[in-house]
Design brief:
The protein has 14 helices and 16 strands. The strands form four sheets. Strands 4-12-11-10-7-5-6 form a seven-stranded mixed β-sheet, with helices on both faces. The chain has helices spanning 6-16, 54-57, 66-76, 90-102, 116-133, 154-157, 167-170, 197-206, 230-243, 295-303, 319-334, 337-352, 381-390, 412-428; strands at residues 33-37, 40-43, 48-51, 109-113, 141-145, 178-180, 210-215, 219-220, 226-227, 246-250, 274-277, 289-293, 361-367, 370-375, 393-394, 401-404. The protein is an alpha/beta fold and 432 residues long. The chain is globular and about 60 Å long. Strand 13 and strand 14 (370-375) form a beta hairpin. The chain folds into two domains: 31-64 and 336-428, Aspartate Aminotransferase, domain 1 (Alpha-Beta Complex); 70-334, Type I PLP-dependent aspartate aminotransferase-like (Major domain) (Aspartate Aminotransferase, domain 2, 3-Layer(aba) Sandwich), CATH 3.40.640.10. Helices cover 36% and strands 16% of the residues. Bound molecules: pyridoxal-5'-phosphate. Pyridoxal-5'-phosphate is lined by residues 115-117, 120, 149-151, 216, 221-222, 250, 252-253, 278-279.
């Protein structure tokens, strides 16, 4: 098969292919990438960019990793895929056992799916089926947080922030859920009990209708890159127990070390009833997600009339994705990940500290390997993306935020290139 020339490829892409959240009439530039290795993306024109995004949180070990490559090759030569209905295999069972061992007790039961959004749909259905099975048929609402993000499918959308999310466009089809005010106490701020008042009062008034509280632990990601106090999470756990409401924690972005602990809920020393994982699960090689839950939840669902959980994706437990996930988790657990993340956190602090002095910057926050610079007005995406590529880095701002969450293998010097690019770009002016 003959490859399209670059200009034909770009023209075809522009005319026929949707990119994430894009217009087909006035799309932003897309850059052809031909290969990726370590922390570098190689563009078709030969330029190499240091990746500050880890391809949206997922590529924790860097690209083209020999261990992950060899796990992929070994599995693809054995069995790329088989259906999971009526069949099972080592890649999935090994992965389940690793996840049960590593996640905070009492996560015991594992449901595989193919993307983060679907794992959230599954979590929501589990919570609702749990209460249905106990005869509590009125408990089918969710309580979510403002500034939350949980994915793009309908059920997931319905628990995303109602203002910045897609509620307005899809009001007609989205179920109405409850939203509590987002936490205001930052990660290191002294705790103010007022912070939990909104969540507490909704639970007090509506617990007979609420199946579960759903939130991203410690870091609210795509809804604003906000880091909040572990005490908020501890208080939420207590309130869920008091009012008999399940707690779903969406660790899709925060899982596998990103915030400094293996899972972000460990920062608060609590565990959910249902937990979603995705993104870094396969080290960014394949799309795979899981929903974990407790035996209490799975038993209740299974003891009900029909006794089955009503979900089963075609590519459930895909062996290729599971084999790579096993290798990725082994790689993480064998290495000094805590130390790497501490180093990156320090380098981010020093590298981004000049931002605090800059005009337009309202906040600089860092947690684990996540660095965020918040401006006082929206970034001009067209200009910003171009500038960053010219400086040899891959950073994709959104709204008023410039943020990076690099692969854990990044060196001090490579990270310094990312942070200087941010400082320089703000100095040069990139807001609308
Ligand atoms: C990315 C993300 C999702 C959605 O995952 P997809 O794989 O894009 O469907 C859900 N929740 C959180 C917190 C995420 O960061």
């Amino acid at each position: 098969m003959k490859k399209l020339s670059q200009s034909t490829m770009l023209k075809y892409d522009r005319e026929h292919i949707w990119h994430p959240y894009s217009s087909m009439i006035d799309p932003l530039t897309v850059y052809p990438v031909v290969s990726a290795s370590g922390v570098y993306l190689k563009l078709a024109d030969g330029r190499e960019l240091i990746d500050g995004m880890s391809s949206w949180w997922s590529v924790i070990h860097g690209y083209n990793h020999p261990r992950l490559n060899s796990a992929a090759h070994a599995q693809i030569d054995t069995m790329a895929h088989v259906m999971f209905g009526g069949l099972t295999h080592w890649p999935a069972t090994e992965l389940a056992s690793r996840l049960v061992r590593l996640t905070p007790a009492p996560q015991e039961k594992v449901f595989f799916s193919d993307s983060g959004s679907v794992s959230v749909e599954v979590a929501i259905k589990m919570a609702i089926q749990f209460w249905q099975s106990r005869g509590q048929t009125k408990k089918y609402k969710l309580l979510s947080l403002r500034h939350g993000y949980h994915g793009d499918t309908s059920g997931a959308m319905s628990v995303c922030d109602p203002v910045t999310g897609m509620h307005e466009l899809f009001t007609g089809i989205l179920p109405k859920h409850y939203f509590a005010d987002a936490p205001c106490c930052g990660f290191d701020d002294p705790w103010d009990e007022q912070d939990i008042a909104s969540l507490a009062s909704i639970l007090e008034d509506h617990n007979d209708e609420i199946a579960a509280v759903i939130m991203e632990p410690i870091v609210q990601g795509a809804g604003g890159m906000r880091f909040y106090s572990p005490q908020y999470l501890r208080r939420t756990r207590q309130l869920c127990d008091r009012y008999e409401v399940l707690l779903i924690l969406d660790e899709i972005a925060t899982g596998f070390g990103r915030t400094g602990t293996l899972f972000a809920c460990e920062q608060a020393g609590i565990a959910p009833d249902i937990m979603c994982l995705g993104k870094a699960l396969t080290g960014g090689y394949m799309t795979l997600a899981v929903t974990l839950t407790t035996t209490a939840v799975s038993d209740a669902i299974s003891n009900d009339g029909k006794g089955v959980f009503m979900h089963g994706p075609t590519f459930m437990g895909n062996p290729l994705a599971c084999a790579i996930a096993n290798a990725s988790i082994d790689l993480l657990m064998e290495g000094p990940w805590q130390q790497s993340i501490k180093c990156i956190e320090q380098w981010l602090r020093s590298g981004l500290s000049p931002c605090t002095q800059l005009e337009r910057v309202v906040d600089v926050r860092i947690l684990g390997t996540i660095g965020v610079v918040e401006l006082d007005r929206p970034v001009d995406m067209r200009r910003a993306q171009h500038r960053f590529v010219d400086k040899g880095v891959w950073i994709r701002p959104f709204g008023k935020l410039l943020y990076i969450m690099p692969p854990y293998i990044i060196t001090e010097q490579q990270l310094a290139q990312l942070t200087s690019a941010i400082v320089e770009t703000i100095e040069e002016g990139i807001t609308l």
